[in-house]
Please model this.
Amino acid sequence: MSEESRNVGMSGGGGLLRTTRRRVLLGGGAALVGLTLRGDVLAGFLARGQEAGLAGVTTIAGAKKPVFVAAAGSMDPVAHSLAESLFWLDQEFEHAKFFLMHMPSPDLDAERAQVLRFQNEFADRLVKVRAGGADRSGLAGFNRPTIELVRRFLDVKRKMEKAQESGQLKSLAWPTFFEHVALEGERFANRLEKFSQGRVELERGEVVDFWSRIMADHAEFVAHLLDPEEKALIEKARGAGAAWRTVKSGGGSKGKVEDSLEELLAFKKTAQKGVEAGQIKSIIHPLLADHVIREALKFSDELKRAA
Ligand SMILES: [Fe+2]
Ligand SMILES: [Fe+2]
Model:
C-alpha cells in the first residue's frame, strides 16, 4: 500500500485530510495543540514550581514542561541562577534517564547503578533549588553544590564517551551523544560560575557557537533515530544538521540564525506530534522529542538577551 493511500485510509478518505504526515513535516511546522504535562515524574513537581513562582523567574511556553528563564531583561544573578538551575538540572535528570534507556540490563547493571545515583542526586538538588533561599551574598555557596554535581557527572559522561568510542562500553548510546550532553553540562556549570561572580551577560558569538553545535547534533540525532524507511525525513534532518554546522557567530545577517532556529523548532515540534501520534516511524522517545524542543526554546531566549 502506498503512503498516500495508507494515510487516506487512516483519515477516512476525506480530501482535506489527504495531506500526509511527511508532507506536513517536510513543508515546515504545524502548531502543537492540546499539550499537557505528563510522563516524567518531575513534570508535576516542576508544574507546581511554576505555580508557586520564584522571585525573578518566569517560564516560556512551547514544550510539555515549562522552560525556566530569568524575567525578561533581568540582570539579577540570583534569578539567573535559579532559572538556569531549574532548567538544566531537569535536563540533566533526563540525560541520566536517556543513558539508562540506552544501557541494557543485566550486562550494564554496574553503569546503570552509577547513572541512577546521579539521577537521584539531580532530583534531590532540584528540590533544594526549588526551595529557594538564595541571596546575592550567599549565591556562590548556593550554586557550588550544583556546579560540583554537574562536573562529577561531566567526568562520567566523558569517560563513557571514550569507553563507547573504544568499544569497552557496549551501550546503545553513541559516543557523540555522551559528548553532546557533556558540552551541555559544561556550559551549565560555567554559566553558574559566572552568576556566582555577579556576571549574567551573554555574548552573542558564544551563544550562537554553543547552540549551533547543539542544534546540529539534535538534527543529526533525529536523522539517526528515524526508521530507515523515513527517507525524506531523514534527508530533511540531515540537511538541517549540515546547515547548523556551517552557522558561525560572525557570519550571516543577524536575523538568519533566528529564522533558522524558528524553522528547526517547527520541525522538532511537528516531529514530536508525528511521533506521539504514531504517524512517523522512529525510535525517538517522546521525552527526547520534548527535551530537544526545550533546548531550542532556551537557545531562542538566550538570543534575545545576547548583546
Ligand atoms: Fe540535553
Ligand atoms: Fe541537547
